[in-house]
Design goal:
36% of the residues lie in helices and 11% in strands. It is an alpha/beta fold. The protein is globular and about 55 Å long. It binds flavin mononucleotide and iron/sulfur cluster. Iron/sulfur cluster binds next to helix 14 and helix 16.
Length: 491
């Protein structure tokens, strides 16, 4: 069975069918025929990273639900999601979800915020996760939990789900146009950046007091940390040279080390950015969304607005600066690195390979397996260059039935240290526990990348797996989501 030109993973049926398909696509993706459980399982092997012994090779990626209270506390939905993260059996919880260090940096009016008043409830999230993990796995040995700290930069909507309130570092000719940033919109000043660094340090102190063992200083997906890395055209101390563009990270780390000794630090970074994509206008109409094509960047060359993008040809990656960034991270004593790609706002096919687009996206411009391969190869190259850093990889969900086979192979072959799971744990939280115990996969619960967990929040609804998780399927918001999808010709 085909969707567009792409074979559906479900239709491939067997590992050999999956491998044949990889061969047809010319993808040299490692894939083991047999997934091992028990003491010899590569995915069940512990990993030592600095002071941590991480009990197995599954990590849960951060995923927010746009479902906190207006003052930034977890809701019942948030608690349920974190409970599921604990039930998964994964031993590394990378960040839980993006938590804003202060109000103006919230990506939406329901994002968690690490204020003094919210600290106790954000500690409870962790406690809930640990209790669920013990319930599922018998103990919490080898469980390591971090909190992702963020400021959403040009993607802030702190007060109203429909109103951007961007805080930007430089003028980005393509993103300013795409997201309607006015030409005279003020840039964050160096003084404002220093005040923000103080807010991060306070948030890190609170995270530590809550019991989190590390904080992720988020540098990905187009949010503020990531924007620093591409601030080539910015004047002053935080722009221009890579030294200046990594000053934010360096000062954050120095501040946290001074104020919160004992708290480990990780970084989730988009290894490269490309020029923004949009639905192909030639193939889009009132009733159809075209496949993704790069927006016209011809007036923006050399392209000095992307981190890890080739300046002459910004639909290609150039990892030179990514390597330099990891050198900086390493020199700061950071050992935990989580690699992701691009941004869900302007290159969603890079970040989350999927067959079905979200309402603000486009049809896949390539077989999504190529997108998965891009993730795997990027991490492999970085792991080879930095063997003593611990890498978490992203973008595995699209592998569906064959996720365990590929996950085991890439860990066994040392392409990656930990397999990070995103959407798959929204639809099927217990997948890691099932794989580690040698139980058959529950195929009806496999995420099929329908993208409703993105379409919902893009339209003011809470996120969740509406098609496969009964909690959302039966919720009143499902009715609204169906209307939204119909209107966007996605239903
Ligand atoms: C609903 C949803 C919420 C997400 N929230 C975050 C977040 O808070 N922080 C983050 O770094 N990435 C976030 N992501 C990206 C995921 O962590 C992950 O990188 C992405 O889904 C690709 O992995 P996958 O193929 O396993 O889903 C989110 C993704 C989804 C679908
Ligand atoms: S809504 Fe469910 S099936 Fe669809 S992408 Fe999200 S987790 Fe996967």
């Amino acid at each position: 069975m085909k969707f567009g030109d792409f074979a559906k993973i479900k239709s491939l049926q067997t590992t050999s069918g999956f491998k044949d398909n990889l061969q047809r696509l010319g993808l040299a993706m490692p894939c083991d025929d047999i997934v091992v459980s028990g003491p010899n399982s590569p995915l069940g092997a512990a990993l030592q990273v600095g002071p941590f012994t991480i009990g197995n090779r599954f990590a849960i990626q951060p995923m927010e639900g746009w479902d906190g209270t207006e003052d930034g506390k977890p809701s019942d939905n948030t608690i349920r999601r974190w409970r599921n993260f604990g039930l998964s059996g994964a031993k590394l919880i990378w960040g839980g979800e993006a938590v804003a260090v202060r109000h103006d940096g919230r990506a939406n009016p329901n994002q968690l915020t690490m204020t003094a008043g919210n600290q106790a409830s954000i500690a409870q999230l962790r406690d809930t996760l640990v209790a669920a993990h013990r319930e599922a796995m018998g103990d919490d040995n080898g469980l390591v939990i971090g909190l992702q700290l963020t400021h959403s930069g040009r993607f802030c909507k702190p007060n109203d789900k429909t109103r951007w309130e961007p805080r930007i570092l430089y003028r980005h000719p393509m993103l300013d146009r795409k997201f309607h940033v006015a030409a005279d919109h003020p840039l964050l000043s160096d003084g404002e950046i220093r005040a923000l660094i103080d807010d991060y340090v306070i948030a890190a102190r609170r995270a530590h007091d809550c019991g989190y063992q590390f904080v992720d200083l988020k540098h990905c997906h187009g949010y503020l940390g990531h924007e620093f890395l591409s601030a080539k055209t910015r004047a002053g101390e935080f722009g221009g040279s890579l030294l200046n563009r990594t000053r934010f990270l360096c000062e954050l780390v120095a501040g946290i080390r001074a104020e919160v000794p004992g708290l480990e630090i990780g970084v989730r970074v988009s290894a490269f950015d490309l020029a923004p994509f949009r639905p192909d206008p030639a193939q889009s109409g009132p009733d159809s969304l075209g496949p993704g094509v790069p927006d016209d960047y011809s007036q923006c060359l050399p392209y000095r607005y992307g981190f890890g993008a080739d300046e002459r040809d910004p639909v290609k990656a150039d990892l030179t600066e990514t390597h330099a960034f990891l050198d900086v991270a390493k020199s700061l004593g950071i050992r935990l690195i989580n690699i992701t790609l691009g941004s869900p706002y302007y290159t969603p096919h890079l970040t989350r390979p999927a067959l079905y687009p979200p309402s603000d996206g486009y049809k896949p411009p390539e077989d999504p397996l190529r997108g998965v391969m891009r993730h795997l190869e990027t991490v492999r190259a970085l792991k080879q260059a930095f063997p003593d850093l611990a890498f978490v990889g992203s973008g595995y969900t699209y592998l569906q039935e064959f996720l365990p086979n590929v996950a085991q192979a890439v860990v066994r072959e040392n392409w990656v240290d930990l397999v990070g799971l995103g959407r798959m744990v929204l639809s099927y939280p217990e997948l890691p526990a099932d794989v580690l115990a040698g139980r058959a996969l529950q195929k009806k619960r496999l995420c099929r990348t329908f993208s409703d967990c993105t379409t919902a929040p893009r339209n003011g609804l809470v996120s969740g797996c509406y098609p496969l998780d009964h909690h959302y399927k039966k919720s009143p918001q499902m009715v609204r989501l169906t209307q939204v999808k119909k209107a966007a010709n996605l239903a």
